[in-house]
Specification:
Blueprint: E1 3-16, E2 21-34, E3 38-43, H1 49-56, E4 64-71, E5 75-78, H2 84-93, E6 95-98, H3 110-120, H4 125-138, H5 155-167, E7 173-177, H6 185-201, E8 204-208, H7 212-215, E9 221-226, E10 229-233
Parallel strand pairs: 3-8, 3-9, 6-7, 7-8
Antiparallel strand pairs: 1-2, 1-4, 4-5, 9-10
Length: about 240
């Protein structure tokens, strides 16, 4: 398997100016992922897990280190230094991100959100409609909600929609930031089914989870984060 992602000596800190405080969120993080691997990360809230993902997705810019990604479009690139235009392309076409929160355009229905994700990959109306229907049915989102605005949805419904929108694209690299946080057991199983399907199709994934039982027999490797440092653990 070829290497998909290599994080080298990643360091990220924040300055809280009104308190004159400097917080080191990540310290010398190193991690490699081969194509098709699924790496799990666990740890307490505030330990730096989500910060790693935000640096990969480039919503945060690290102070030090490299994030080397083997892109289909651009070849081997350092995500920490890539142009905004190139990064926008990768977010649309190659790198998916599922967070616990759903940020959507106003007056856009659930069905339209999933269809837009398919359109971004260059597919036509018929295929987009078919895939949106398949994903919304898979996550058992009530049909009465398909053409409603997600602002009215419960937290669990929003999270299921967020997962559907990211997974329908079948990205090369998928970042899952606590994707089961507010889901019931049945919905967690639906997420697991799709993760297993994406693994079979060769998607490379990183996931943050608190549910160790969910991670069992799913992850190639599991790490724990503590005070901004990453440690390998036996699983």
């Amino acid at each position: 398997m070829e290497e998909m992602l290599a994080i080298e000596h990643l360091t990220k800190s924040f300055v809280i100016h009104n308190l004159d405080k400097h917080i080191e969120a990540l310290h010398d993080i190193c991690l490699d992922l081969k194509g098709g691997e699924f790496v799990g990360i666990t740890g307490k809230s505030g330990s730096g897990k989500s910060t790693v993902f935000k640096c990969i997705y480039r919503t945060y810019v690290p102070q030090k280190g490299r994030i080397l990604y083997n892109s289909r479009k651009y070849g081997l690139v350092n995500l920490a230094e890539l142009s905004e235009r190139q990064m926008v392309y990768l977010r649309k076409h190659e790198i998916g991100y599922v967070s616990q929160f759903l940020n959507t355009m106003p007056r856009t229905t659930a069905r339209e959100l999933v269809k837009q994700a398919v359109w971004e990959m260059g597919h036509g109306e018929g295929y987009a409609d078919q895939e949106a229907k398949r994903m919304l049915e898979h996550f058992e989102l009530d049909r009465e909600l398909w053409d409603c605005y997600p602002g009215t949805f419960s937290g669990g419904e929003k999270l299921r929609l967020n997962i559907a929108r990211a997974m329908v694209k079948r990205p090369r690299l998928l970042l899952l930031d606590e994707p089961t946080a507010s889901l019931d057991q049945a919905s967690k199983l639906k997420v697991r089914e799709l993760i297993e399907q994406l693994k079979r199709e060769g998607t490379t994934m990183m996931g943050i989870f608190h549910d160790l039982e969910f991670m069992e027999n799913l992850c190639s490797r599991v790490y724990t984060m503590s005070q901004g440092k990453l440690k390998d653990i036996e699983f």
